[in-house]
Task: inverse folding
């Protein structure tokens, strides 16, 4: 849903369960709610932009001026909407986020089990779970879904719907991939709608759709600390290595059109770098937490 419409519906108190989760996933939802909560004590028509800017600097590493410009119109909108009664029970919204190099296991109210990969976020509304099994994912996660009503995983790239099954969803920037391990999975994307069976996968990157079959296994290898790639953009492989090891990688080689097939483990940085550079005849240099990828 359009961001502006989502915020407008939040102000009006007309968000449904799925839209509430989408609102929580907005990067500045906490800031918008903070502004709204402060409005009863608001004594002057002038917005304290310095304080707002300081708070934004603490909560994001993005350009604060851009963030401030994006927030100010909505702060004004909240002031106008002070007379509107709305209902949003943030206490029932559960947000689980992993750090760099970290994995986490999440048990949902229906005993569905989720394994979150590094630098990923999972959001769901516990209060409405019995009526709507809806989650919002940013990053990568493996789902083992308990049988029951429709279960939905929303991402910024596409939507995955199942009844009871096991599947993996990865959404990183422009890269979107779904792999079915058990049961069947319906995938909806602006470019493609498909039902996957066990062993089947679909990946979409920069409007290019790839699908196929893989040997049927119980779970993705990353849950055991091994990252496997098949025809994945090289920059995405480096991004994943960066997420797992907490290093900053500078790629001095044009890799915009390179695809990588291979794997690396999460227990040895040197070996991981060799695994992703040697097949492409590249080299690397490590300086503290910084890595440079270069030609040999």
Result:
């Amino acid at each position: 849903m359009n961001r502006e419409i989502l915020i407008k519906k939040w102000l009006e108190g007309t968000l449904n369960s799925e839209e509430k989760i989408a609102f929580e996933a907005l990067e500045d939802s906490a800031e918008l709610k903070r502004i709204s909560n402060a409005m009863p004590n608001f004594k002057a028509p002038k917005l304290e932009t310095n304080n707002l800017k300081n708070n934004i600097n603490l909560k994001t590493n993005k350009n604060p001026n851009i963030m401030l410009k994006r927030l100010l119109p909505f702060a004004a909108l909240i002031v106008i909407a002070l007379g509107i009664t709305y209902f949003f029970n943030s206490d029932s919204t559960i947000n689980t986020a992993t750090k760099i190099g970290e994995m986490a296991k999440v048990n949902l109210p229906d005993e569905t089990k989720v394994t979150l990969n590094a630098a990923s976020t999972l959001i769901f509304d516990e209060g409405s779970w019995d009526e709507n099994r809806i989650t919002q994912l940013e990053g990568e996660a493996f789902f083992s879904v308990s049988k029951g009503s429709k279960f939905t995983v929303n991402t910024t790239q596409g939507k995955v719907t199942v009844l009871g099954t096991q599947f993996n969803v990865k959404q990183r920037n422009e890269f979107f991939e779904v792999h079915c391990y058990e049961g069947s999975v319906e995938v909806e994307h602006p470019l493609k709608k498909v039902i996957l069976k066990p062993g089947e996968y679909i990946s979409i990157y920069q409007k290019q759709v790839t699908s196929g079959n893989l040997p049927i296994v119980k779970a993705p290898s990353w849950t055991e600390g091994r990252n496997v790639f098949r025809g994945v953009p090289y920059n995405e492989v480096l991004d994943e290595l960066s997420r797992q090891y907490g290093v900053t990688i500078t790629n001095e080689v044009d890799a915009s059109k390179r695809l990588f097939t291979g794997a690396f483990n999460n227990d040895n940085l040197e070996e991981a770098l060799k695994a992703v550079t040697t097949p492409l005849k590249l080299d690397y240099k490590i300086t503290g937490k910084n890595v440079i990828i270069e030609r040999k």
About this structure: DSSP finds seven helices and 18 strands in the chain. The radius of gyration is 21 Å.
